[in-house]
Amino acid sequence: MGKRHRIAAAVLAVTALVLGPAQAAAAPPGKPKTAHAKKLAAAYLDRAGPLARAVAVEFGIPASVTAGQSILESSWGQSRLAVTDQNFFGFKCLATGPGPIAVACHDYPTTECTPDCHQVQALFRVYDSMLSSFRDYGRVLSTSKNYTAALPLKHDPNAYVTEVAKKYATDPNYAAKVIRIMQENNLYRLDAPSP
């Protein structure tokens, strides 16, 4: 691993420790710039792309949005929450527990903006697989009243994620970050039928 890659990994690790698992990804991953980052991104999309398409088929959520949110929330699958707990969407546990798909809860520090940003402790869902995390994402977005207004917008990924972001995240720039990721990485190609 070269010096530049070690520095980038150290920055990501410190960000994850300081800001928490979900917000570590909030340092916008954007489009990978180095050859190593491009290789990691391609490997992540090789795994996440088919899962995002499956979520689109089963739950009616644009695959581009699913992939974009997972990239932002998991920092291309490299965040501590994704690696340790297979949580690729930053989902927190409910007051009643992890929900019907997650298997446990794990306590992490995180940052909430309500409207001022501040550090809090929160319980995040733990999954047994990446597939389970993606399925739970699809289930939540397609059944929660928080996201009902987004459902008719499924043919417009940018409008869809803009509506979802109103309840999904406390970061006021969340939708813009996901849209930037979708644009810079041409994730809209995932919305086209598989060849």
Automatic annotation (TrEMBL):
Hydrolase as a keyword of this entry, yes or no, is yes
Question: At the top level of its lineage, which domain of life is listed?
Answer: Bacteria
Keyword Signal listed? The answer is yes
Please state the span of the N-terminal signal peptide per the UniProt entry: 1-24
Q: Which residues fall in a coiled-coil region?
A: none
Q: Which residues form the Mannosyl-glycoprotein endo-beta-N-acetylglucosamidase-like domain?
A: 33-191
Which UniProt keywords are given for this protein, alphabetically ordered?
A: Cell projection, Cilium, Flagellum, Hydrolase, Signal
Recorded GO molecular functions are: amidase activity
Name listed for the protein in its UniProt record: Flagellar protein FlgJ
- Source organism lineage? Bacteria, Bacillati, Actinomycetota, Actinomycetes, Pseudonocardiales
